[in-house]
Each structure stands twice: as C-alpha cells, then as structure tokens.
Specification:
The structure is a homodimer. Chain A is about 30% helix and about 30% strand. Chain A contains eight helices and twelve strands. In chain A, strands 7-9-6-10-8-11-12 form a seven-stranded mixed sheet. In chain A, β11 and β12 form a beta hairpin. The longest helix of chain A is centred in the N-terminal third of the chain and has 18 residues. Chain A is globular, with a radius of gyration of 19 Å. The N and C termini of chain A lie close together (about 5 Å). At the A-B interface, α1, β1, β2, β3 and α3 of A face α1, β1, β2, β3 and α3 of B.
Chain lengths: ~300, ~300
C-alpha cells in the first residue's frame, strides 16, 4: 500500500513533532541542524542492512564499510557542511563477524582519512541476524550555509553534478565519491537556494525539493545526463533509469537564473555542472520532452512495510 | 574465545585510532566528546536488537522504544551531560512494521519530553529481518564536566546510585529512569573524578574505570546494594547477581574521601548514595568479604562473535 510507506510515516511524525529550539529546521532534510548554546551542528545518520543496501557474500566487506560512511558524508555535503566525526554501530552476524568487522573498517577508514573525519565512537554487537550498520556523521555548517531543501524559488535553475543511473549493477553505489568538496566549492561560488543528494532517484529527490520549497520543478528530458553504466538501448528506457534508479549520490541544487549563467561560464574547479531544468510556480514534478510537458510521479526507491 | 569478544575488537580499534582534535577523549567512554570550532558536544549511540536487548512479541513495543532512548540518556548522564536531541534509526520487520513503529514512538516520546530531548532526525527502513533500533543522542557537557572514566585516584570512594541485579526478569531494564538529574546534582555537589553507567554489570563496568584510570578498585561485598528484584536465597548468589546481571543503569562514580564524607552527610536532593568500595593503587578489581580480599573477573554481559 502506497500510504504505508516510509514517507507517510515520516510525514506523520513531522506533523506531530513540534518545532524545538534544539532542532531548528525539524526532521526530514538530508542532515539535521542542531542548535546548542548558540552553536550549530549538522548530524546525518543512515542505517544500512544486508539484503537491502548491500549483500554480504556478494559485496566485499570493504565496499560495504565504505558505502555506509559515504552515504552519510553525502548527506552532510547536501547541506554544504564539513564532516568532522563519525560513529559506527554494528550488528554483526556471530559467524564470520570478526572478519567482517575488519573488512568494514578497512573500507571506511581510508574514506574517513580522505575527508578528515575522526572515529569518535559507536557500538559493536554480535547477534544471530544479518549485518546491520548504522553510521552517524557529525559536521559543521559552513557560512552562508547550511543549505536546506526548502529554499528553491520559481525561476531558479536546477543542476546536477554528474550523470545518473545504473549505480547498483556497477557497484558505483559503493565506490562513489561523496560530493563534499563540490558542495563547498559551489557554496563559495553562488547562493545555493536548495540542495539534496540523489539517493532515492532524481524524480523522488527533486520532488522533495519541490514539496519543501512549495514550488514545481520542470525537468528537461534531453538534458538529463545518463550515466555510461546504463546499458545502451531505448532512449526512454535509459531516461527512466536516470530518473529512478537512485543511489547516484550526486548533488542536485537550485540557484537563480543569473547565478546559473555565471556558474556555467565560470564553473568552480573540479565541479561538473549539468543544467537539467527549472523551478516554476505551482507544485509537483513535470518532465518536458520537446513541446510535450507532463507530470511525473516520484517513482524512485522507497521502503515499504505493512 | 575470550579474545574474540567485543572488547578486544574495541581495544584493537583504539590502538589504531590516532587521537584526533575533533574527538579529544577518543573512543570507549560512555559518550563521545566532540570539539568543533571550540565548542564541545557529547554524542552517545547504541544499537539494540530483537532477541538480544528485547524480544519483539514478548516485550511491548512501547517499552522497547523507551529502553532504546533511555540507554542513551544514561550514557549522557554518565558524562554528567544534558541531553538535547535524538536521532532514531529503525530496521523494521515488513510484517507488522507500522504497528511496531507506532508503539516504539509511543514509548520513547514521553521520555523525550520528560528530559526535553528534541527528535532531530533518523532513518526509517523496512526489511525482512528482525527489529533493529539505533538511537543517537546529542548532548551538552555541563561545567566542570564532562566526567570521563579515567580520573579515579587511589583513596577515592566508589558510590552507586541504587540497588543492583534482577533487572531483566522484572523488565526494569526497560522501565528504569536514566540518572540524568542525579548526575547533574552530583556534579554540582562535588568534583566527580570518574563516572560510568552500569549497563554491563557492576564488575565489568568498574573494571573499565579501574583500567582507564590506571588504578585498582576494591568492592566491599557487604556494602553492595542488592535489588529487591533479585529473588531471596543464598547470599553469595544474590551478590553475584548484583555484580554481574547488568542493565541496572544506575551510576557508579568516584570522589575523594573528603568529598565522600561530605556527600554522605549532605546528599543532593533526590540522589540515593551507596558507598560500595574504594580506589587503590595497582590494577584490577577485588572483592573484600570480611578479612578476605580476592581478585574477581569482569564476568558481566559481553557480546561474542567468532
């Protein structure tokens, strides 16, 4: 049932979660903004499970560990923050747990060093169930950020930082580089109205920006960059995969039309820019193909329970 | 194998985890102390699993949710901090997941309100495995804290804040009140040299203080307060349960002998004080019964994997 999805639960939770001075932007963005004694902190947390986000025995433990950290760094990047410390909680299967934990850390530690993220704590457990990893990353907002999902305005241009689709079969969902540096370079180059990392698929993730910003977004089909990991074939099939495969972990962001032109003529070093659409008055997500423009559903990945 | 336990892994991890300016006290205390741009933050995180920390179908979901938050508030209390925000990550079994998540939140929300802890984020997932809950709590250190495990000195007196043992069968491991208020009252009343919350059992938890502080600790058998939840019977049996049952979530702390006398003559309002032993030069844990004093193992609960 569509109304029994993860999102509906989060919606219900948001409605009953009163705004609290410790958490000024509330739940539901890429990372939480905490305000304690006048200082702001970003916190991202993701739980990844065997059989859902990776498959133990198929995905090497090093790649599993790397992914579990990288998705959280990507969430901090989506707020244009700087990651600082990580917390690793593990439910390890009893059989083979020691080799697994060694592999997980062997995969995540080099990524932590690359982004100067300290191992600050966690909780290591063994049980009779499958592997579950929860990573929490604490970061610092960088002025004039943090960048939420809610600031897009009609007339804004929508960009993504790389090609999309085909991430799962190619294992790019484990090997991707979180766009932390790119986000900081963009933040320094232009006022970012809204930003999100593309984890659930472009269609789903842009619909979050549209809804949080109270706007609509028009995606221009021929501008969506399709990743080389998507097998060649029918064009509309490849487009659908770029829109819905998910786990690309590129950034999507919105800037004014003036800033868009400025970024395109002088892009920040090391940042790939793909203009894919625009923000419009109204609501929802539309796909424009030539003269044809029609609403599309958010049909990306979502967890369901009944 | 004893050398394949959770602790050995954490030891190995600590040895290879270089000190980092973002995490000045390193891993392995009750909560992490983060230092970002001059400000300090406490972070506690615990992963709890069906069949290990609770049993879905036996333990009501409300009590499971309450416990998952309470154990983290207890970790913040053990540093004499003030909890401020929480992050709830869930791996929900697909079947019955919606009722389960409602119950979990119905149990944890009143406790969050009692301690003024904001729901700031999390990650809600469904899968085919058993329930896994990871809670992260962010808190503020309170001057002159935070109180680590490492500051006990020979001559210090060891106190606990309540009777111990029998927590699991009575469900007290789910219904306990985290000692946040008690910790802050004690912090205001006396310099606390070391503190820990009693999750793994008094013997295990005091051995952490002894090791981190480079001291020994002598427990006086007849002073250990045995909880009424422990069935009456053989005295040494009841003592063993108070030493090793675990999940009491009382605080154990060390203060100078002078401060100990002062606290006993004028205890902070609402704080139960049980003097149970003393810190000595040397190492390890000893149990004194009359004239007899002998080393004891840390024989509390520990997770094993092979």
């Amino acid at each position: 049932m569509a109304d029994d999805s993860e999102w509906d639960w989060i919606d219900a939770l948001r409605k009953r979660t009163a705004a609290h001075p410790s958490a000024p932007i509330g739940i539901g963005d890429d990372a939480a903004l905490l305000r304690c004694a006048g200082r702001e902190t970003l916190v991202a947390t993701d739980m990844l499970m065997d059989g859902v986000d990776f498959v133990v025995g198929e995905t090497p433990p090093e790649l599993i560990g790397r992914k579990c950290l990288a998705v959280n760094l990507s969430d901090i990047a989506a707020m244009a923050g700087r990651p600082r410390a990580m917390f690793i909680s593990l439910a390890l299967p009893r059989r083979g747990g020691r080799a697994l934990v060694e592999g997980l850390y062997a995969g995540l530690e080099p990524l932590a060093r690359e982004f100067d993220v300290a191992l600050a704590g966690g909780d290591t457990n063994a049980w009779d169930g499958p592997l579950v990893v929860n990573v929490t990353v604490v970061g610092e907002p960088v002025a004039p950020g943090p960048v939420a999902r809610s600031g897009a305005r009609p007339g804004d241009v929508v960009f993504v930082t790389g090609p999309l689709g085909g991430s799962l079969p190619s294992l790019r969902h484990c090997t991707f580089t979180p766009r932390v540096r790119e986000a900081l370079a963009l933040l320094a180059a232009a006022p970012l109205h809204a930003m999100i990392d593309l984890s659930d698929g472009l269609a789903t993730d842009l619909s979050h920006i549209a809804r949080e910003s109270g706007c609509g977004i028009v995606i221009e089909a021929e501008r969506v960059p399709v990743h080389a990991d998507v097998p060649s074939g029918d064009h509309s099939d490849r487009l659908r995969r770029a829109l819905t495969d998910g786990e690309d972990f590129e950034l999507a962001f919105c800037v004014s039309a003036n800033d868009a032109a400025r970024l395109e003529s002088d892009p920040p070093a090391g940042v790939a820019l793909h203009r894919i659409g625009e923000v419009v008055a109204g609501s929802g997500l539309m796909l424009r193909q030539g003269a044809d423009q029609r609403p599309i559903d958010r049909t990306g990945w979502q967890h369901r329970f009944a």
